[in-house]
Amino acid sequence: MADLGFAGIGDLADAYRDGRSSPIAAVDRCLARIAELDAELGAWQAVYADEARAAAEAASAAIRCGHRIGPFHGVPFALKDIVDVEGRVTTGGCAAWRERISPRTATIARRLIAAGGILLGKTKTVEMAMGGWGTNRRMGTPRNPWDANVARTPGGSSSGSGVAVAAGLAACAIGTDTGGSVRLPAAYCGIVGLKVTERRLPTDGIIPLSHTLDTPGPMTRSVEDAALMFETLLGRHPGDTERDRERRVGLFAALDRGAQGLRLGSLSEAERQGVADDVLAVYDEAIERLRSLGADIVPFEPPSPFDSMKDGCFAIIAAEGYYHHGELYEDETAAVDEDVRPRILAGRGMAACDYIGALEARAREGVRFLERMRALDAVLTPTTASAALPLEDVDQHDTPARFTRTANYLALCALNVPAGLTASGLPVGLQIMARGNDEAMAIRAGAALEAARGPLSPPPIGAP
C-alpha cells in the first residue's frame, strides 16, 4: 500500500479485508505522523494515543477472527473539539472551557465508534465554531500544510480537522458546518467536505452555534470516502453499507454515474466579480472538465446575490449564537478570543421581530432559489473567492463564506471537491450545491470531477 498516513477509508477497508494491513499498522502510522508533524501543524487539541492503540489491537483481533463489522471497522478518525465524548474535555476552542468535561457522547460519535472506528483524538476549532478563516488567538491556529514557507489560513471553523486529514494525520474527520465550516477548510486544505442537509444528522452532544443551521459532516480525502462516512453517520447497518458499496447501488451508484446528462449552473458574470483570477482559472477548468464529460452547463443568476444571502445567514447565526453563548461573551474578564467576541455579541441587540423576520426571509429566499434552479441538478461555485491567505493578511471583520453560507441559509446540501491547484500550488475547491436531501447528486458530480481531475499530490508539509 501507499503510505498508510494517506490511506482513505475505502483503502483501509479493502486492505484489512484482504489481510494486506491492519488497524494496528494504520493507527501506529497516524500516531507516528502526529508525533512527527503536529508540533509544526498544530491540528490537534488532544490525542488519545493509548486508547487508540488499545482499540486498534481489539479491531485487528476481531478482523483476524472473521468478526469484521464493516467498512469503517478499524478506521482512525478525528473529532472536531466541539463534539462531546463522555468523560473527555471538550473545549469548543475556548480557553475559558479548558476543563469542561463532556457529560455524554454525541450520537454521531457513538455511531462512528459502533461501526468500529478508532478515535484518535480531538482537533482544533475556531472558538465556538464562529469564524471561517480558521484562526484561534488563545488555543492556537493550525497551519495550512500546503505552504512550507508562509503560515496560511487553514479555513474554519473545522480547522484542525481539515489540516489533520490533508496532512495524513487521520484517515478522516468530523467537522461541523453552520456557514461553511466543513467546506472552507476542505477547500483551503485540498480535501473533500460534505455539508449535509440540515437535520439529516443528529446534533445532540455538539456544542451549538446556531441550532437552526448547524450540521455535522464528513471531511475525507476522496468523494467515495465522504459517502462511506456519511452512511456511517446516518446510522446505517455496516453490513448494508458494505453490500451497497460492493454492488454499487444506493448512494454508491451515484459515484459511478458520471456527469453525462447533468444540467449544472455556473457563476454569472456578476458573481464572478471579486473572485481572484487564479481561483477563476481553476474553477473554469473544472467547469470545462465537467462539460467535456457530457454535462450541460449554463450561467446561473441567483434571485438574490450570494453576498446578500451571506448576510441573511449571518443574522440567524448571530441571534442564535448570542442565545447560546452571550452570557460568556458579555463577561469582559472571560478568557475568550477577541476576534470571536464581537461576532457573538452581534446578536445582542436583535429584537424578536427581527429574528423572526430573518427566518421568514430565509424561507422566502429558499422558495425563490429553488424556482430559479428548477431546470438544474446542481449549482457550481468556487468554494472560496481566494486561495488560502497568509495569516498576516486576514481581515477578521470579513469572512471567506461568500458562497458557502448560501447552502446553509437555503437548507441545501453541498460538497467541496478539490478542483486543482493555483499556479503557486495552493488548492482551489469547487462547491457543488444540490437540493436538500439530494446528497447523491452532489456526490455524483463531485466524483465525476474527481475522476477526471486525477489525484492531487500530497501537501508539502507531511508529504511521504
Secondary-structure element series = HHEHEHEHEHEEHHHEHHEHHHEHEEH
β-strand percent reads 5-15%
CATH A-level architecture: Alpha-Beta Complex
What fold name goes in the CATH topology slot? Amidase signature (AS) enzymes
The helix-and-strand class reads: alpha/beta
Question: Could you walk me through the main structural features you see in this protein, from its secondary elements to its overall organization?
Answer:
This protein is of the alpha/beta class. It has a single domain (4-305, 359-453), classed as Amidase signature (AS) enzymes, CATH 3.90.1300.10. Helices cover 40% and strands 14% of the residues. It is built from 16 helices and eleven strands. It has helices spanning 9-18, 23-41, 49-64, 107-114, 159-166, 183-189, 223-233, 238-247, 251-254, 269-272, 277-292, 306-330, 341-345, 352-372, 405-409, 439-453, and strands at 44-47, 76-80, 118-123, 172-177, 192-195, 215-220, 263-267, 296-300, 378-382, 413-421, 427-434. The chain has an eleven-stranded mixed beta sheet with strand order 1-3-2-4-6-5-10-11-9-7-8, with helices on both faces. Helix 2 (23-41) packs antiparallel against helix 3 (49-64), helix 5 runs parallel beside helix 6 (183-189) and helix 7 packs antiparallel against helix 16.
Give the structure's gist in a few sentences.
The chain has 464 residues and is α/β, with parallel strands linked by helices. It has a single domain, classed as Amidase signature (AS) domain (Amidase signature (AS) enzymes), CATH 3.90.1300.
